[in-house]
Design brief:
Layout lengths: L9 H7 L2 E6 L25 H4 L2 H6 L1 H16 L5 H12 L2 E6 L5 H4 L6 E2 L2 E7 L6 E3 L19 E4 L8 H13 L2 E5 L11 H7 L3 E6 L11 E4 L2 H11 L1
Parallel strand pairs: 1-2, 1-7, 2-3, 7-8, 8-9
Antiparallel strand pairs: 4-5, 4-6
The structure holds adenosine-5-diphosphoribose.
Length: about 240
């Protein structure tokens, strides 16, 4: 049964799918009120460009300034809740035989909504990483006022997110690439498809024979390769999809 929201054939394709990959971007957290990466540069931070704060060089140059920006983002994210889109994805993961969720978001909201095994391509705001020895540690307290020393090597630890010029964690890349290549369906949800290597995952899936679904408010560079396009807010379209499956 097709509905106004679902392209004809999508429900049947999902019901028949053995392996499903979800690729999410900041649009899936929009209804939680999480400012997108570029929105986070407002108010006091408006005078900076992301490239001036979210880079290893910026942290070397002024660790406290970079830490203060991320503390502000941790506070913002700690104060919001997962939205129906996050919960719908967790429900679909529980319902479908084999899934992998790959997110570009660092807000941790998928985990808070029950997607315990989310592959966090760009890391997580609530962790710290030492750029000297690569030690990673949880950072649950958004109020920590200064970069902590690495317990292993003593260097200052920065936020556990992937900065411009840094590599995607190898395990995340390997899991995502393999799952995409073996997928029957990939759903690209709330992502502009502009930032690689995440933006290449739908193409990897399509080349492996998968159907591509795009869930977005607007067309993106991924739309041209999508077999199905669900236009609308993910917080509305995904719960409807989960309920209809
Ligand atoms: N429902 C569905 N899609 C939405 C919604 C919504 N409610 N709100 C916004 N969108 C879509 C926008 O149309 C846009 O295509 O989400 C996408 C957000 O795009 P970006 O802000 O570019 O976010 P993203 O694709 O996650 O960026 C990838 O780039 O900024 C860096 O490292 C950062 O992880 C980020 C990466």
């Amino acid at each position: 049964m097709a509905s106004a929201i679902f392209p004809a054939g999508l429900l049947d394709a999902l019901r028949q799918a053995g392996r499903v990959v979800f690729l999410t971007g900041s649009g899936v957290s929009a209804e939680s009120g999480v400012p997108t990466f570029r929105d986070a540069l407002t108010g006091l931070w408006a005078r900076f460009r992301p490239e001036e704060l979210a880079t290893p060089e910026a942290f070397q140059r002024d660790p406290q300034l970079v830490w203060d920006w991320y503390r502000e983002r941790r506070r913002q994210v700690a104060a919001v809740l997962p939205n129906p889109a996050h919960y719908a994805i967790a429900a679909l993961e529980a319902r479908l035989p084999e899934t992998l969720l790959v997110t570009q978001n660092v807000d941790g909201l998928h985990r808070r909504a029950g997607s315990a095994d989310a592959v966090e391509f760009h890391g997580n705001l609530f962790s710290n990483r030492c750029r000297a020895c690569d030690h990673v540690a949880p950072q649950p307290d958004p109020e920590l006022a200064a970069p902590p020393p690495c317990p292993l090597c003593g260097a200052l630890m920065g936020p556990g997110v992937v900065w411009f010029g840094e590599a995607i964690p190898a395990l995340a890349l390997e899991r995502a690439w393999r799952a995409a290549g073996e997928a029957d369906i990939i759903l690209a949800i709330g992502t502009s498809g502009l930032v690689t290597p995440a933006a290449a995952l739908p193409d990897v899936a399509r080349q492996g024979g998968a159907l591509v679904v795009e869930v977005n408010l607007h067309p993106t560079p991924l739309s041209a390769q999508a077999d199905f396009v669900m236009t609308g807010p993910a917080a509305l379209t995904l719960p409807a999809l989960a309920a209809a499956l």
